[in-house]
Every structure is written in C-alpha cells, then in structure tokens.
Design a protein that fits this description.
The chain has a six-stranded antiparallel beta sheet. The chain has a five-stranded antiparallel beta sheet with strand order 5-6-4-8-7. It is 28% helix and 31% strand. The chain folds into three domains: 72 residues, Ribosomal Protein S8, Chain: A, domain 1; 80 residues, Alpha-Beta Plaits, CATH 3.30.70; 85 residues, Roll (Structural Genomics Hypothetical 15.5 Kd Protein In mrcA-pckA Intergenic Region, Chain A), CATH 3.10.290.10. It contains seven helices and 14 strands.
Length: 256
C-alpha cells in the first residue's frame, strides 16, 4: 500500500500493531505484503513498540528494496514459516522480435492486470527479460494472464531454483570526499551538486537502511545501504585511504 494521507498513515500503523499483537498472543507468524521504502520507514518509527513480537524482513533475495515483514520469534514458536515469496521469469516468446524493456514497462504491464502493488516485490530487468519477486499466492495468476509487455508477447514461469535468478552486479566505485557525510558521498556517487543533493533530502527521497534520512550531515557507517529515490542505491564500504591533499577515498557498490 502507498500511504498518502494522515488517515492512511494511522491505519497502516494500526495494522502493524494488530499483526504484532496477533503473532504474540496466538504464537503464530504474521505477514505484511511487500513494503516500499516509505512503508518500511513507518515501521521503523514504531519499531520500539513492536519489537516485543519479534520481526524479520525478506524480499526474496539479498539487497531487495521491496520487503515483506514477518512478525514472530522462530526460536519461541519452534518452527519456521517461509515468507511465501517466489520468483517469476518473464521472457519474450520470440526474442528477435522483442522490444527493449525498462523496469517501468514490466511494472506497467503487471499493474494493468489489476494486481495489488503489495503482492509485487523487486523486478530485476535483464536483456529483454525480467525476474519478478512476488507473493506465491499471485504467481499463478501472473503466469496465466501476463501475455504482453509493450508490443511483445511474453511467457512466464516460476523459477524453482535460486541459482536460476541472476545476482545484481553493482558497479564498484571509489570517490574522493572531504568527509563521510552522507550528502557529500551522494553528491560524488551520483555526480550531483551539493545543492541538488540538499533538495533530495528536502523532498524526502533519501533512505538509509529502510529509514527516511532527513539529516544531510549524517556520517555514514560501513555496510549501510543508501537509497536515493529516482537514482538507485549504493552500499557504503567505508574509507579505503587518504589522498595527499587530505581527501578521503571511499568505496561504494552502486546499483543503478
């Protein structure tokens, strides 16, 4: 769900508390659908009041942006319940006649089926194909009904082996900054001016570890994931050296 008003915000927070309470009182796992960054941030706002129930996030693979939240302590419950996430491979029937696709093309075709956005996770776009993480409950419907993306006829199949899903290959970059302030690092990674980066913070487009970041002078810590909506994300690997002029050489893995 996309939270767009104060009423929806309160409804969403109440939903989180209901799921946590149900898990704790009935000794069962409870789940949300896929959460975007803004919805994950709402969880972190309430985290101290929800941690009693135990929780875990998963999106189907490492480094996913859209995640399902599960409440419940598996150690206390004595069993493990999977998140119910599968991967659907979407490919053209005839590749030589295929269009070139973007993430928006695949998402638009899926949303035209009338699917709830919360049932859909990340879409990894390759060469004229995509791998879609989605809830297991919606996967058969997608496989039966998604027949066309743009002007290209496609086929869908559920990928059963994790090895069949290609890993995202980030670009390893090294940039020089005066300090590990988040605004300075973002400016260098995305080749933006400091003023442009400040506007991104004002627009609420910067997240660290799934939490909205409003402090542009925040110092980054090693292994933190920074999402900049509209540009992608990167994992900050820390300071790797210092130049003769006193600049810090920092390394990051950038996902475009």
């Amino acid at each position: 769900m996309a939270v767009t008003s104060d009423k929806e915000l309160q409804q969403w927070k109440s939903r989180l508390h209901d799921l946590a309470r149900k898990s704790y009182q009935q000794n069962i796992f409870t789940f949300t659908g896929f959460l975007g960054l803004s919805e994950q941030d709402l969880f972190w706002q309430e985290e101290q009041q929800l941690r009693y129930a135990g929780y875990e996030f998963w999106g189907g693979s490492e480094h996913c942006d859209r995640l399902v939240l599960r409440f419940g302590f598996k150690e206390d419950l004595g069993y493990e319940e999977p998140f119910g996430i599968v991967c659907v491979h979407i490919a053209p029937l005839q590749e030589k006649f295929s269009d070139d696709f973007s993430h928006r093309d695949f998402l638009g075709a899926l949303m035209n089926l009338g699917i709830d956005r919360s049932t859909l996770g990340d879409i990894r776009v390759g060469h004229r194909e995509a791998y879609l993480f989605c809830l297991e409950s919606i996967a058969p419907f997608i496989c039966e009904n998604l027949e066309q993306v743009k002007h290209t006829h496609v086929r869908c199949r559920i990928v059963s082996e994790a090895a069949d899903v290609p890993e995202e290959e980030p670009e390893q970059v090294v940039v020089q900054v005066a300090s590990a302030r988040i605004d300075a690092v973002i400016a260098k990674v995305y080749n933006k001016s400091r003023n442009d980066v400040i506007e991104l913070f004002r627009a609420g487009k910067v997240y660290v570890g799934g939490r909205l970041c409003e402090n542009n002078s925040r110092m980054l810590k090693e292994q933190e994931t920074v999402n900049v909506r509209g540009f992608g994300k990167f994992i900050y690997y820390g300071v790797k050296g210092e130049t003769k002029k006193g600049k810090l050489s920092i390394q990051a893995a950038v996902y475009r």
